[in-house]
Amino acid sequence: MQAWRVYENGEPSEVMRLQEVERPTPADGQVLLRVRAAAVNFPDALLCRGQYQIRPSLPFTPGLEVCAETEDGRRVIANPALPYGGYADYAVADAAAVLPAPEALDDAEAAALHIGYQTGWFGLHRRAALEPGETLLVHAAAGGVGSAAVQLGKAAGATVIGVVGGPDKAAVARAAGCDVVIDRRAQDVVAAVKEATGGRGVDVVYDPVGGAAYTQSTKVIAFEGRIVVVGFASGSVPSPALNHALVKNYSILGLHWGLYHAKNPKLVQHCHEQLTELAARGAVKPLVSERVPLADAANAVQCVADGTTTGRIAVLPENGDAV
Fold first, then answer.
1. Torsion of Cα atoms, 131 then 133 then 134 then 135, to 10°
2. Which of 35, 86, 95, 235 is 20 to 30 A off residue 135, Cα-Cα?
3. For residue 37, what are the β-bridge partners?
């Protein structure tokens, strides 16, 4: 079979190599999956760079999110178990973590439903307790993680303000459902948010960016607001001023979605049921901006790393053989 392999850490386009390798053999408690689609995530780039919280032994195959087929013919979504990631014809996953693919979504959309939407659901509902009628600010609202949070915020009855970089991404954020879109390259984000909220600020911030975005969030958060820290796509990890949180009476909430697999896996299953229902009635639909063959996976990961994409890129292996 074909698989992308990383033998040394660095930029994805430089260290990912497409090779012919042996089909992986699942360990006890694991299943073999024929990959139908793999969604590209920013953590894939961090894995290649050796900067992710999980550092698999070299060599490994990246690809953290797939729609796949099991040996008994079930269509599922899963997070592959490294080192046998999803940028390959076949991957391996822990059997307990395999979930049924929503019938309402095609393979590429189903692959993209898992990490971004689970993270958004846990961030908005489990951590921030977003209520109908509240105002949600989403940074990087045109990206895969951000657009998922936008859709989930709208489904929860919130008014959603999206921050993006550039007019093309602004159009994507509007299409995703944002009530207000702010182009950080052309507008003062803080002034624009205050204008949109009548000076009150926002109840919840969803921040996968960090850096300057986090600083902006602290200036527009409302009384008893909640800032959900999801990641640091900017490459800059902020140091929060806790005296400021005290004076303005807001909460800073961290979210590491992967911990729920170990600490409370039943919640992951519950979340998937909620997402499947939302997908069935059209309330959420992953934004797949591009579908590329397996041969273009390294370039796709690099584009996500460079921040030039919108929504999700899906990698589609050409292997059509049955498992």
1. 140
2. 235
3. 67
Enter the pTM of the model: 0.91
Half-sphere exposure of 291 (CA within 13 A, CB side): 15
Check the CA dihedral 281-136-107-97 and report its sign. negative
pLDDT tens per residue, range 299-310: 999 999 998 898
* 166 compared with 261, residue with greater pLDDT: 166
Distance separating alpha carbons of residues 285 and 127, to the nearest angstrom: 22
Name which of 121, 65, 76, 72 is nearest 103 in CA terms. 76
The closest of 67, 84, 15 to 288, measured between CA atoms, is 67
Q: Which of 38, 137, 122 is nearest to 80 (CA)?
A: 38
For residues 315 and 292, what is the distance between their CA atoms, to the nearest angstrom?
A: 5
Instruction: Render pLDDT for 88-126 as a digit per residue (tens, 0 to 9).
Output: 999 999 999 899 999 999 999 999 999 999 999 999 999
Least confident of 175-189, 242-256, 305-319: 305-319
CA distance 18 to 3: 6
Residues 229, 233, 238, CA angle at the centre, nearest 5°? 55
pLDDT, tens only, 211-222: 999 999 999 999
State the Cα–Cα distance between residues 166 and 163, nearest whole angstrom.
10
How confident is the prediction for the chain on average, in pLDDT? 95
321 pLDDT band, cuts 50/70/90, is very low
